Amino acid sequence: MELNDNNTIEYACNFYMHTPKYLALSSRSQRDYASNLNKMCATKVHNNKSIGRIKLRDFRYKHITVAYDLWQNTIGVRQANYVATCLSIVLNTAIKHEALVTNPVSLLDRTKEKQRKVRWSEDQVKLFLDTAYSQWRWRSIGLIVHMQYDWAQRVGDMRLLKWCDVDLKNKRLDLEQSKRRADVHLPINDKLCAMLIQQKKDFGFQQYVAPQVEPRNGAYVPYADVDIHIVVNEVKKVAGLATNITAMDLRRSGITEMVEAGVDTFEIMQVTGHSNPQSVKPYLVNTLRGASSALSKRNKDK
Question: How far apart are CA 8 and CA 14, in angstroms?
Fold first, then answer.
């Protein structure tokens, strides 16, 4: 393949996905990049024209600003920044191959993501799961949320979880986390196990625990991060839940509940996969439950 300024953004994406740099990425990262680049290419900007159809020589700052605003409003700041980064990598590849002079994404004023403190309540989780499990099309999304909350894991690891990591007979999960490559070994409680057994009956013929329930091009594939955000919002709307809670908040919710329950930091690390106690500090938030527990213990001695 060759690359020149007459090629489209979509062609440049395909070119990048044949480079040694892309092929050296893990299979998970490759899938994430490909999914986000597809979403980016499909984004409509000026004159209802998708980014993917714009030629490299015609791509301007105005295009990325319109697209970035759309992404922020539909998939959130964090994911919008990730999609922009994926596009920037493609454009930098074009520059290296002398098909582009400048990278408009480098001029973008990105929104800095604020440190989130939002948590799901137990009632919110229950209402979400009841709603998601009530419809077949949301079945896997419900299971992803269920696993995230019960195990306090990242959404990325749950959406890509494979049956080979789940031992239903002994009710345990053996997971290598994608971010830090930490190994965690977690019990499966009875309620989650029952859902997994049913899911295994329906989807045990393929490798993913919670794939999209409808096949694509004849294959069952995992949800992309952006798709999870969109579908979770659909379920929240039907359930009447607050709009500010996201799937990413479930890990924080689970960890904070362990903190409130008085679980030792090093025991929490066995669940979260953190190797340094300092990494758990952001979850040591001030809560009414924690303060009430501390004061009641103090008052017992009076």
Answer: 10
